[in-house]
């Protein structure tokens, strides 16, 4: 059984894993990172989206062994203590969630799309979220939240808040 | 403060510790409060059922039938038992004596056939996905592996797929009793008179395709026992109903069974069920004495979560030349699937009262036949019978408008109940308490820019633009707030429609609200807090809402049918009133005044005309100490209330949309969507808007994207999300939403419910728009989902005799700008064979722009 | 759902990978190469495939990257779609690849899924094989025996079947950089953003003085392999581009596209029957040429 080393939300784990173990099952069943849920079998729904070395991936479509030596950030690793990530706040403020099952993946995908466009248009947001399905919200408020989160993140990126910015750039 | 309270030491400490809350005069109801639920959901601190881990937990995996219909001749579990990590393997035979039959609580007629429905098939399977065996293993991977070692032999039987064929003489039978479950009839007025000599009769047949509800959280069950009592965690909308039904099914005494709905990731009706997996989970934990967990895969879910819709609707309208409706006749075939589940037969019946929509008429006649097929059973899906009804009447109204050359809005105006006429008792015998269809429609027309779009449409028609524009109209109402128990009784439903709440005043002045509703995304924790904050004059943040655990909330009817606020919210309010009554008595005692002289405002009970008063928190604390209470006053202010409504509520609204149809490819694009809903008074506008958004998206998805498809052998072809298409953000537009507010008169909050409105309204709006775009081609219908291929085929089938572009007519049509299609005769011939019923047959000729002109003329007097 | 068990090998070098795959080939083991895994893992989860082992090439940096080699651009097989999209070389020298790649799946899948993996998977509904065919890409493969090159026209053999022999690894693709005067477009027609193309058209068009000198058209999902629309390519030579999509009664570009479905055998599935796909191929080819030739 391969032994892997993986950092999840800042904590480094060494685990012996079956080659077929899915990253999402490693997170949920072995490491207790149940904040990341599973919604499908085919990589369509995006509920299980996490950051792998800073880029969004669907953790149901990655083997745990493929994450060997990598850094994973889940929804549980976004907040700084009790201070939520601006995107978490924006989802709350804009009522961008109802049942909340898609929310962890949606937030990770939202943060990811801002890497390329810190001030995305509605269309850019909709395209950037095409791999994440929500059944409750009709997406209107999610789109609003992502744009709000984007604005708040760029305001925070002001030089005088360099320290916080550093954290945001690194973790999400 | 403490000396006044004359309380004990603890009470004094509480009072001095600054923990005692202060009253609040803030008005919470109507405020766009951000949700309390969000904190755990946006940070991942959730308790989905699959997150639950218990010591020694075992994992269950089900082997499911690959056959739509077959006799099970052999199940050999011996090899699977030897696989690593396998604790037990069971077939249906192993449970035959104890598993009972999954319940159907809605026998709609006396002669209804309710077949035995074993949770695990024993002798025969009747749909693909039916459980035939299961493995219990030490982890989910090992359980999945061992499934492959179970051998099952089947003797194939004929699949029964099509409802019409199922009812034909000589059809193979799903059950020995035949394929008809029931025929249910309902009528009002003299329908024959209405149709006799009617100048206009519209007769249409619509297909309500089968849908898969697809809540984002797949179902999951955790069952555990200490040997005597049982606890079942389930991703369910109905912990209370489930507990009763599971007790009846499994024989576990109700008081030894606790059901918990932890965080539940959406339902839309699909989790309003008593499932095989819940029953079997309990039976397995009873046998093994260990906690067990089963988590559904999406593929399993597409096969075995109950489906929605699947009806064949024939609707006829008899009308005068003036467009006034004389009568509506509906003949429905409803696909039950292989068995009758919890409320399967009742779903089309819920629609029976809605085919008249918002319109006045003299007569109504409704017949529904429930048909068995070898498919997954159908049951409640967002709207449950009412979207189907609204679709049929709103589609048929557009057909009538077209037939008469009237603007569809104008036709509706002529027929709808005007705001002065409320309360209005409809032909179906329902009394619509309040509404203002004119106001909602006028607002929607203004927001859409209706007249301008009609002008653009006429222009595109004139230019014969290959991209045509259609405007869809849907004016709807729905019966919500399920439901008055007496009415349910008259419809043979097995339970009541009341709801329960308790309000507990804690010593520090904080409030716990127990509700029998079971939210799974609707935001009850927030909305109920707002109601309580206003009723008791306590701060919003001082209220906690408890739900979803039968040990905490012992009594309830749960969440479905847009009932939670309209019934459950009122129960909360009534419990608060009882708390205040008690508090008033105590205040009078403590203030040495008569209870009649005590007035309550902003959380404080005061002696009228004085400054002397007690806050509700002080009173709560006083009952904790209980040192100085009136005689025979029970310590505590807590109160229970159970509310049973007298009437349904009737939210309504007008949804309009503009859709571009690319006639060359059949692609459709929603250009704008406007929804003006009237859900009565609003507790939280943010939540209301969210519900409308989500509802619209689901209704659009039915119109454009979704269909559960079975082949002729009963195999499902849409088992994954790659095949069953759920729209993403990039497949939907932004929605423009607004509200009018006509308070319900049937409850003290004036609320009507909002959970289903968007879904009910949007589906016909979309299809009406697509048909409207294609009117110039003589098109009268496009079957749902309106896929590009279907739209294209409809255009092509019509195109043979209607608009002919150069490509079709050998480049002779020199005036036409757009060439609609590239079809040679061979292709068109091909097409006719596959043409949708009802569309290819009765087309005549290019019928625009006459209709459009008529439209403008009629629409002009708004 | 959960994959069946398999062994896992992560070679440290390309040579080792070739050796492992060579040994598996000679022993007849059903070994699958794991690149990004975005197609393979869903298949494994649904238990539609039961390989005895996966050979993970994901840690071989030599298979990753985009290199401008003058007349062509070499894309390493393990270059992710995301890296392809971020490559200035791709955007400037082989823009058709960028246009098609942008339509592949969604951002998260593009972070993992690879250019070579999409090709080797040989799904005719995939967007990139049609591009490779249209551009006459050359596939560079290696085994223990050495390297060989396979032209795109021979690479896609059948549904999910490429010309890769057991023991061979796709190490990269040479994408010809067409010179100035060429325009490009990928027209994808699908029901939802996530859905596979019902039909896709990859078009490269060379114009000169308002006339189409040359066109290369690859079709997605019009057969068991991607298909080249040769009839259109022949018929469109010398046609005036000004007429494309024009409003006149006669559109010679449209006429030329009438043969877009020639030689195809489009599949029948939930989303489309063959005759509709044929029709779409004609309409979309016309549209693609209209945009590419602009």
Automatic annotation (TrEMBL), chain A:
Pfam families: Fer2, Fer2_2. Keywords: 2Fe-2S, Iron, Iron-sulfur, Metal-binding, Oxidoreductase. Gene3D superfamilies: 3.10.20.30, [2Fe-2S]-binding domain. One of its GO terms (molecular function) is 2 iron, 2 sulfur cluster binding. InterPro entries: 2Fe-2S-bd (IPR002888), 2Fe-2S-bd_dom_sf (IPR036884), 2Fe-2S_ferredoxin-like_sf (IPR036010), 2Fe-2S_ferredoxin-type (IPR001041), 2Fe2S_fd_BS (IPR006058), Beta-grasp_dom_sf (IPR012675), Diverse_Oxidoreductases (IPR051452). CDD domains: fer2 (cd00207). Residues 151-172 are annotated as: Disordered. It comes from the Bacteria. This is Carbon-monoxide dehydrogenase small subunit. It comes from Streptosporangium subroseum.
UniProtKB/TrEMBL annotation, chain B:
GO terms for molecular function: iron ion binding; oxidoreductase activity. Keywords: Molybdenum, Oxidoreductase. Pfam families: Ald_Xan_dh_C, MoCoBD_1, MoCoBD_2. Residues 17-38, 825-862 are annotated as: Disordered. The keyword Oxidoreductase applies. SMART domains: Ald_Xan_dh_C (SM01008). Gene3D superfamilies: Aldehyde oxidase/xanthine dehydrogenase, a/b hammerhead, Aldehyde oxidase/xanthine dehydrogenase, molybdopterin binding domain. It comes from the Bacteria. Residues 43-158 form the Aldehyde oxidase/xanthine dehydrogenase a/b hammerhead domain. Residues 28-38 have a biased composition (Basic and acidic residues). Signal peptide: none annotated. PANTHER family: ALDEHYDE OXIDASE 1-RELATED, XANTHINE DEHYDROGENASE. This is Carbon-monoxide dehydrogenase large subunit. It comes from Streptosporangium subroseum.
From TrEMBL, chain C:
Gene3D superfamilies: 3.30.465.10, CO dehydrogenase flavoprotein, C-terminal domain, Uridine Diphospho-n-acetylenolpyruvylglucosamine Reductase, domain 2. GO terms for molecular function: FAD binding; oxidoreductase activity. Residues 245-273 are annotated as: Disordered. Pfam families: CO_deh_flav_C, FAD_binding_5. It comes from the Bacteria. Keywords: FAD, Flavoprotein, Oxidoreductase. Residues 1-180 form the FAD-binding PCMH-type domain. This is Carbon-monoxide dehydrogenase medium subunit. It comes from Streptosporangium subroseum.
